[in-house]
Design brief:
Two copies of one chain form a homodimer. With 153 residues, chain A is α+β, with helices and mostly antiparallel strands. Helices cover 31% and strands 22% of the residues of chain A. The first copy, chain A, has a single domain, classed as Orthogonal Bundle (Arc Repressor Mutant, subunit A). The longest helix of chain A is centred in the middle third of the chain and has 13 residues. The relative contact order of chain A is 0.13. Chain A binds a DNA duplex (30 and 30 nucleotides) through helix 4.
DNA sequence: CCACCACCCTAGAACAGTTCCAAAGATGGA
DNA sequence: TCCATCTTTGGAACTGTTCTAGGGTGGTGG
């Protein structure tokens, strides 16, 4: 739940071929690897994976029917604080992205919610990264600590 | 609730001095202007205004105590579909931004939630627009319509 | 090999934010 | 003024997430 520096092991777009490095990393960090956690972690493996908790739950359940929704939430939150997943919000619900190694942005379909990773150099999103999308909007949120909060800390 | 093209009347950063143009625009579009709606619209006037529904409710209530939360939600949603407010989500709840005239991004304090409008030329956010914030993260979401959805429409 | 203890899992309750609903009230045109 | 229409209201319902209390489990020391 703490300490080990978040060394980015992956190096950019690695493709979805490797199934275990996340599991290995977690074990190396002393994370108790139960059946539930393994199934959830495996569900979160791949490229362009941006599942919401209930989707993770459904998929995990097909492999391990007795897994509970609470465990899915617990595990996802833990993986986020371990730095192994990145969390973002789309249409009011949290989604989880296993691609934490390379800085990237999201390309979201307003109709079906389909989400792809993109790597633009500038916020304009070059044509070769649009995946055929008709662009409608860009939302950029910078996060930081304001002067008051910095002073208070 | 529909039609009238969303002519951007304001022109960039206008300052918070004008109190009525939003109200005027709404009346011109045939929007029935009740006391509740007026109070809510006035609450949403100004610069760097990014209130959540319950905050709008609290403020509106100090002026018009009998206003209901349902009306606040109804009105905010309507103003969004009229194109007079922009909606975004921060930490699981929707916030509303009256600044729809000029393209801008948001600078959010991860500690207190304070949100400011910024106008970067590139996603790096130049120093003179950081408002003293210590930058921690940038989140960029492109929205559009994917090829499948375009074909289906 | 066993016992123990810290950690983990589970179901369900609780919670927050938002939307829905039916009834009552307000509004403006004929 | 009357009436059809639109608006408001409180509360119920709903969704996504977190909390809680109790039972279960893995793996370490003996």
């Amino acid at each position: 739940m703490e300490s080990t520096p978040l060394v980015a092991v992956g190096c950019g777009r690695t493709g979805g071929l490797t199934l275990t490095p996340l599991i290995d990393r977690l074990r190396d960090r002393g994370w108790r690897l139960t059946a539930q956690r393994r199934v959830i972690a495996e569900t979160m493996t791949g490229e362009h994976v941006h599942l919401a908790a209930d989707e993770v739950f459904e998929r995990a359940r097909t492999v391990l029917p007795e897994v509970s929704l609470a465990t899915v939430y617990n595990t996802l939150n833990e993986l986020v604080s371990l730095g192994e997943l990145r969390e973002f919000t789309h249409e009011g619900r949290k989604r989880y992205d296993p691609n934490v190694a390379d800085r990237h942005h999201h390309l979201v379909c307003v109709a079906c919610g389909r989400t792809l990773d993109v790597h633009p150099d500038d916020p304009g999103l070059p044509a070769d990264q649009r995946h055929g999308f008709e662009l409608l909007d860009v939302e950029v949120t910078f996060r930081g600590r304001c002067p008051d909060c910095t002073a208070a800390a």
